[in-house]
Amino acid sequence: MSELVATATAQLRDALERSMKQAMEKGQLPQAPLPEIALEVPADRAHGDWSCNAAMAGARTFRMAPQKIAQAIQENLDLSGTYFNKCEIAGPGFLNFTYEPRFYGEVLQDIHKLGKDYGRSDYGQGKRVLVEFVSANPTGPMHIGNARGGVLGDALASVLDAAGYYVEREFYINDAGNQVNKFGASLEARYLQIFKGEDAIPFPEDGYKGADIIAHAENFAKEYGDKYVEASQEERRAALVGYALPKNIQGLHDDLLRYRVEYDNWFKESSLHENGSVEKVVELLKEKGATYEKDGAVWFHGEEYGSEDFVLVRSNGVPTYVVPDIAYHYGKLVTRNFDMAIDVLGADHHGYVPRLKAALTALGVDASRLNVVLMQMVRLVRDGEIVKASKRSGKAITLVTLLEEVPVDAARFLFNSYEANTRIDFDLDLAVQQDSQNPVYYVQYAHARICSILKNLASDSITPRECTGEELALLTAPEELELIRYLSSYTGEVTAAAKALDPAKITKYVMNLSTLFHKFYNACRVKGTDEALTAARLYLCTATRTVLENGLELFKVTAPESM
Fold first, then answer.
1. Strand positions, DSSP E, 289-396
2. For a designed S-S bond to 164, which of 97, 124, 132, 542 qualifies (C-beta 3.0 to 4.6 A apart)?
3. CA diameter of the chain
4. Is 156:342 a contact under the CB 8 Å cutoff?
5. In a 10 Å sphere around its CB, with 0-12 CB exposed, 13-18 middle and 19+ buried, how is residue 183 labelled?
6. Helices 211-224 and 178-196, packing angle to 10 deg
7. 324 contacts: CB under 8 Å, gap ≥ 6
8. How far apart, in whole angstroms, are the C-alpha atoms of residue 518 and residue 524?
9. What is the bridge-based pairing of β-strands 94-99 and 265-268?
10. How far apart are CA 344 and CA 367, in angstroms?
11. Alpha carbon 504 to chain centroid distance?
């Protein structure tokens, strides 16, 4: 919550505690420990701005009916010096509180004072968080799931940063293991086919058949000719992978940059093999007594740590895919000393997470420091039908082909409109619509409308200015108060999104804020005959613009001045 809201609720708690103590001194309530006070915003704001359950919570402690407790609290309640001016009893004993007028003016002054920093807090207390997301296989282009994961991870990192955490974004490059071996075999076959013909060189059954493999092989042949045709398989594959893989990684980097995703670190899996981290983590698990041998392989005692048993090192001495992952996460939380590691992964990884956490526990690491956000699949929809291929190429839609069809703003906004555990049907038609049915257009239009108001008033020599408390107290229309109340909740929404690891909360927030602004605009004429009221309404418009911009900035969606 914002500092102002935090101050207001702290005042309310103090006033309630004083009231109950006074009621006990008077004998209106029996002497007993104070009940825990829970404050919440009522679903229906007609019931007030905050609601308290103290009377219900105290029923068992005080051995009295909640209604009588509520009456005793109300009778002894002193709200002077607080941001509240009214307390009413509702239902079985709820206490409902209403803000006094000066609160609304101070919310707007707070937004104007803080500007771009409005919404930021120190909730995270500078704790170090590493957010790893996308980490697409560098052997091919990024798919639609990566498009969702890119926004989810990037927006989550922004939300955590705004909530007072120190955040780094990381891409884990799978440049070792079976996928890269398959990549090398595929490149080799295409390269040799150039010189020996397709009939002479069979293509691996499980090879990568994409056009990108053919292009890499052809470009490699142009540069090196037949130099590697007679080389050993090991040398030839190493040369081909060494040529193609950096180009693919650069391609991932460029495509993500176009999508407005930038990383602090690009971490190579191969570095874990080169620096001995993979071997070291197996040895550490052995030292902890967390392994056993069976059929010549090294197994992890998973059942002792909350997962099933699994193989760490095969009988041929080659580690399984999970070992570098254990080493990588051990490095995040121990070697690099991040307080928390967050992985954004596809829902198909649900069985992998308990294994990883079990191994970390065995290594003496608090596994709760690893948080995994599992996201559901994405289906593309056009004309109400599921789409699997690009209209232009007839091939599967990748991140790049999606961005050729859908604006980046729309893709980022719409992908971030859903909680991670919700399956998305991404409507390609809706994403390009320029009307209020399209959520991103609807929110951007609210911002553009405010800019248009400012421009039109400026042509009449009316410009925004600072307002006094008395002038801001003129904002009394229900639509004005509802809009200001919602503006006051923005910081709390950012904190809640960080706490839940759910940046979609901010997308929903800016949509609701836009609705409330349009409602205010339709009910309250900004330019009127009363200069002070016009100034106050203009002040409200500019505060709303600031919060819309701050919210959109968290998921890197632009805030256009005209549409």
1. 291-294, 297-300, 310-313, 340-346, 370-375, 378-382, 385-387
2. 124
3. 101
4. yes
5. buried
6. 60
7. 176, 177, 269, 272, 273, 277, 278
8. 10
9. unpaired
10. 16
11. 7
228-to-223, 239, 541 alpha-carbon distances in Å: 11, 8, 67
Residue range 256-272, pLDDT digits in tens: 999 999 999 999 999 99
Other Cβ atoms within 10 Å of 549 Cβ, number: 17
Is residue 62 within 8 A of residue 30, CB to CB? The reply is yes
How far does Cα 320 stand from its chain's mean position? Answer: 31
Rounded to an integer, what distance in angstroms lies between the CA atom of residue 476 and that of residue 441?
A: 30
Q: Give the tens place of pLDDT for each residue, 530-562.
A: 899 999 999 999 999 999 999 999 999 999 999
Helix (H) or strand (E) holding 395: none
Torsion (CA) 123, 125, 127, 129 in degrees, nearest 10: 30
The CA–CA distances, whole Å, from 236 to 181, 183, 226, 239, 490 equal 12, 12, 11, 5, 58
Residue range 73-109, pLDDT digits in tens: 999 999 999 999 999 998 888 899 999 989 999 999 9
CB 99 within 8 A of CB 49: yes
What pTM was computed for the model?
A: 0.91
The dihedral formed by the CA atoms of 545, 550, 555 and 557, expressed in degrees to the nearest 10:
30
Rg of the chain on CA atoms, in Å: 30
Q: Dig out the tokens for 275 from the structure.
A: 């620096």
